[in-house]
Amino acid sequence: MTVTTKDTGVEQAVETITLTIDGIEVSVPKGTLVIRAAERLGIAIPRFCDHPLLDPVGACRQCMVEVPDMGNGRGMPKPQASCTLEAMPGMKISTQLSSPVAAKAQAGMLEMLLINHPLDCPICDKGGECPLQNQSMSNGNGESRYGGVKRTFPKPVPISAQVLLDRERCVLCARCTRFSEQISGDPFIALVERGALQQVGVYAEHPYDSYFSGNVIQICPVGALTSADYRFQSRPFDLVSTTTACEHCAAGCELRSDHRHYQVKRRLAGNAPEVNEEWNCDIGRFAFVSGRLTDRLTMPLLREDGVLRPASWPEAIDAAVAGLKAAGTHVGVLTGGRLTVETSYAYQRFARAVLGTNNVDFRARAASAEEEQFLAATVAGGTTDKAVTYADLERAGKVVLVGFEPEEESPIVFLRLRKAVRKKKLAVVAVAPLLSNGSAKLSATLVPTAPGAEAAALADLADVDAGTVVLLGERLAAVPGALSAAAALAARTGARLAWIPRRAGEVGAVTAGCLPGLLPGGRLVSDGVARIDTATAWDVESLPAEPGLDVNGMLGAASDETLKALVVAGAEISDFADPVSARDAFEHVGFLVSIENRLSDISSCADVVFPAALLEEQSGTFYNWEHRPRPVARVNKTLRSPMTDIRVLAALADAMGADLGIRTTASAAAELSELGAWDGARAEVPAFTATDDAITPDGFRLATWRELIDDSRRNDGAGELLATAKPPVARLSAATAVRAGVTEGGTVTVGTARGELTYDAAIDDTVVDGVVWIPSRASGRNVAEALGARAGDPVTAKEGARS
Amino acid sequence: MGLLDQWAGFGVTFMTMFRPTFTQGYPEGWGSKKKAKEKVTAPRFHGRHQLNRWPDGLEKCVGCELCAWACPADAIYVEGSSNTDSERFSPGERYGSVYQINYLRCIFCGMCIEACPTRALTMTNEFKLADYSRAKLIFTKEELLAPLLPGMEQPPHPRRLGDDEQQYFLGLPATGQPDLRTWTNQMEETS
Fold this sequence. Notes:
Number of helices of chain B: 7
Largest interface: A-B, 13 and 17 residues
Number of strands of chain A: 37
Structural class of chain A: alpha/beta
Strand content of chain A: 15-25%
Strand content of chain B: 5-15%
Largest sheet of chain B: 3 strands, antiparallel
Largest sheet of chain A: 7 strands, mixed
Helix content of chain B: 10-25%
Shape of chain B: elongated
Radius of gyration of chain A: 28 Å
CATH topology of the largest domain in chain A: Rossmann fold
Oligomer: heterodimer
Helix content of chain A: 25-40%
Number of helices of chain A: 25
């Protein structure tokens, strides 16, 4: 028999065996567990500890089946746990459906579990969606014969700020401890004590601050682990579930978003085997309340006498149109990389067809012309069947991480890499200034590289072949020559490249054409044929041919007032490579239109502010880093939500006397797919040379990147989540520490001409000598703003004041 | 047609006028029954709901929403919340922070009180629920909570009957008697 595996679509011959379950023959691949084989027949054997993505353990003993014949003619004398029993040829299995012995064993097991399990289902968050409740009803006795006193523990115990443990409810299935050990690699919880007192314990000095801790709440088969955030918020039967996609990073997780009375109460990981399997990270799970704070914009604002005041929609549209018309084509459009493909598409069409300029860029971060060329050549117009996918990561012989920290920047990529490392002995190479905690969990080999020297490191990288996948982070935009070196490496060795940005909308924005030199689908602005093709599809006479300004050019032109107006959506001043000069640009630009869902630092200096619907109030699509379309469903159907970005742009276009051509997400998606793939000229891969500046023996270099849980505005309102953020420390090697006069346990002050920041020092000998690593946006400390420095820049380091 | 024929029809009318009446005055009797008391319902009459209290005044409702789940008319809306040590409404971890019964929808079937796991929700005999607006017929928690009896205290307040949950419940007096308190008889006792 052949089995079509989901991963590849390629038929692979798998050795199969045939066994009989409840008198029905079934053929399964060799090595299949009996409980899985029974599932194939639609026979549900009750279980608690069994989870298809975790190693079998046989801890709960609930899945008992009778084995009259092991395949060798002899039967098992006692019922067996089917979750640890491998199917054998000719095996005969009797489940509870045909065997009174198995049914009695299962009922007895449930009765034993319920001896100490409290009957507090009415106040338990799991009540109503609880496997223990359900299986007690379907396979249990219904009545308890136990009249004694139940074991109780003080409850609930917080094992981290966001996970609460009710020990008396625990059935010791070890799903949570296995998850933390096998999947996330943060074994901060373990089963401790023995007998009736056995319980899930947490290290005395370490709370369970894993980036993936929310998953243990979801896989707990009873109500032992509950979410502090969701606790007592609602019951399962109140909730309306919507399958949607996560908006926080480019991993593209499927989510189940549960809402009650137009308010999202919780978000769970969806089941997308090809993307996030059944996991997600804590940001995706817990950071969803930022849109319901007091700074939510619900009506347009208009600047009058220097102050923003609420305005009606017609008034605001008239003001915006007057300002934009006065600016002519000296207008720039900045979209923050967080928008859906459809919205990005609408913005670039608005810039090109309505405003008549190519000044459009989604990169509200460090960006370069080299990066734009690299994206145009390798990312724009990509498709999942050609791009590197999660499955390719699992199949790769080697994965090289360059300028990319998977656990911090794309956590689901990290989980998939860790799965491949654990199960398929994948070799991971990290081209980084230090071996981070995430890389250590991937057993990565470090290629010590000072920040800024990634290009040279890529050129010298050995043992790279066609089976290698090189994962490039968005931070490489700030390293001259690095993306060119990666492209050269791929051309030389046949290695495959994948660009994994941090934000969910970036790959989609590239495909939608939100770059000054790029039209939708990888068409080039410089290519006349592509311009005519696009202009025909948009039903306009022509498209602007002169090259547009990128984000750096626009901010510079805004500061010196050659750019007269800016339209900014979904961006923050703190996002930009240098927030101070960005603030200067936004304050100096003649006319600023901000389209936001919350009042931001940009909208505070805008002349007209339009409110936009939250992502949970609109539909759309994200392309994740594999170019896989991830559908975003409208979760919250409240009538009170403002217009979507596309609707606002259409209204502005109408008032300017031009036609945007699209009014809804659906029409934007239809137009983008009608525009279709482009088989004309493509951009060449960049061939920029690296700047060569080695660290001077007495100098220090800054290494920095964003951590998953930091001072981002997406986390606003999620207090429990923020409490699990890593404490901000500066990492430096012992030799560097000696040179800076810093001791372990002391503090280190990192400074530039602009300012200084002080962190607790952590001596880490994997850090390249001369390099000091600090988190980019730890609570209250924005490195780019305070120091005006980016990774690779020279800084000073000295012992800080004792805190 | 005779002269009296048209009066013959009134015979029925006059006969009926002198029969004993079975209509009843409301809210008081009238005529010969002017002093009659208000209608007394059967003891198990399904009237207005009440949310009961523990003897120290803490609420029995844990906000589990089983009443809302059981309700065939979708008349009940509940939201649960966590008790804190500084603000305690019920002896356990959880209490009902929002509790509403919509009497425009309620059909007085009593499924909710059967579902209630703590006997927090019971029904009184009160049936006079007419009012002038829809809003007034959505009863909130304040209106539904049983009045404070002597010895009870208005929550939030700490547990008075035991230091922790277990002591609180184990320390409750064993009555051996069904709880016969109703909203009406308590009002009489307290007044």
